[in-house]
């Protein structure tokens, strides 16, 4: 069964600190992996997308890594800001002709002043 | 360029009522999708469309209907609303090629629906 699991479920950090969010998946055949940021009451917004051959991708203070062998990904946030408070969702795309997206349940991050 | 626009943002329905959630996109994307997001759960695909006149069921289609008469619009219809349909609904669009995959996946801001 295609699944995406994220950890931790929630996280509180102080402003200015770094943090890393984890994503494990069992989606097959793998096409790509995306990280989305979802602010409260808003739709998800794409941060990064990585294909099988990419190990890391950055978007400002966000850096995503992918290990396709172990089927793990991480999202590292550097020098956190209050505006980083949101849910971060890992989404894996299965290459099935119509590319099916499998969503994780998200990590809820709170950046405290 | 507004992206994906959903209306209404909030709605309260009584059990048995019906309503239509509107979704329109101005990016000329061929693919459109409807998802629901329940608390503590990942987004689940309700219906999707690969182009005008073509729709298909996703993971959780029961209790819903869709139509796609134009490239821009993809309304979701709830008939006989039930408390189990209380959720946040997201519309999304993308353009997609079989060879290179999904591009430009964009979500709307959501419709929060409560059925009482």
Plain-language structure description:
The complex is a heterodimer of chains A (113) and B (116). Chain A has strands at 4-7, 10-14, 19-25, 30-38, 45-51, 56-59, 62-67, 72-77, 86-94, 100-103, 107-112. Chain A is an all-beta fold and 113 residues long. In chain A, the strands form two sheets. In chain A, strands 2, 4, 5, 9, 10 and 11 form a six-stranded mixed beta sheet that branches. In chain B, the strands form two sheets. In chain B, strands 2, 4, 5, 6, 9, 10 and 11 form a seven-stranded mixed beta sheet that branches. With 116 residues, chain B is mainly β. Chain B is globular, with a radius of gyration of 14 Å. Chain B has strands spanning 4-7, 10-13, 19-25, 31-37, 44-51, 54-57, 64-66, 76-78, 87-97, 101-107, 111-115. Chain B has no helices and eleven strands. The interface between A and B is medium-sized, with 23 and 21 residues.
Class based on secondary structure composition and strand pairing of chain B: mainly beta
Helix content of chain B: under 10%
Specify the overall morphology of chain B: globular
Number of helices of chain A: 0
Mean pLDDT of chain A: 93
Largest interface: A-B, 23 and 21 residues
Summarize this entry quickly.
The complex is a heterodimer of chains A (113) and B (116). Chain A is mostly beta strands and 113 residues long. Chain A has strands spanning 4-7, 10-14, 19-25, 30-38, 45-51, 56-59, 62-67, 72-77, 86-94, 100-103, 107-112.
Question: How would you describe this structure in keywords?
Answer:
heterodimer; A: 113 residues; mainly beta; six-stranded mixed beta sheet; five-stranded antiparallel beta sheet; 11 strands; 0% helix; 59% strand; B: 116 residues; seven-stranded mixed beta sheet; four-stranded antiparallel beta sheet; 54% strand
């Amino acid at each position: 069964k295609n699944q995406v699991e994220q950890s931790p479920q929630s996280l509180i950090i102080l402003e200015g600190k770094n943090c890393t969010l984890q994503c494990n998946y069992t989606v097959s055949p793998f096409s790509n992996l995306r990280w989305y940021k979802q602010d409260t009451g808003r739709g998800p917004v794409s941060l990064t997308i990585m294909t099988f051959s990419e190990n890391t991708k950055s978007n400002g203070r966000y850096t995503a890594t992918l290990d396709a062998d172990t089927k793990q990904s991480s999202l590292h946030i550097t020098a956190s800001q209050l505006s980083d408070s949101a849910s971060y969702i890992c989404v894996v795309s299965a290459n099935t002709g119509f590319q099916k997206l499998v969503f994780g349940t998200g990590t809820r991050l709170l950046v405290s002043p | 360029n507004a992206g994906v626009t959903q209306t209404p943002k909030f709605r309260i329905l009584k059990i048995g009522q019906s309503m239509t959630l509107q979704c329109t996109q101005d990016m000329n994307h061929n693919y459109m999708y409807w998802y629901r997001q329940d608390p503590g759960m990942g987004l689940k695909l309700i219906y999707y469309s690969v182009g005008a006149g073509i729709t298909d069921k996703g993971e959780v289609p029961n209790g819903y209907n869709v139509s796609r008469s134009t490239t821009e619009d993809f309304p979701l219809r709830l008939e006989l609303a039930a408390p189990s349909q209380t959720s946040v609904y997201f519309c999304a669009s993308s353009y997609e090629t079989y060879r290179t995959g999904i591009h430009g996946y964009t979500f709307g801001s959501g419709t929060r629906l409560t059925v009482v």
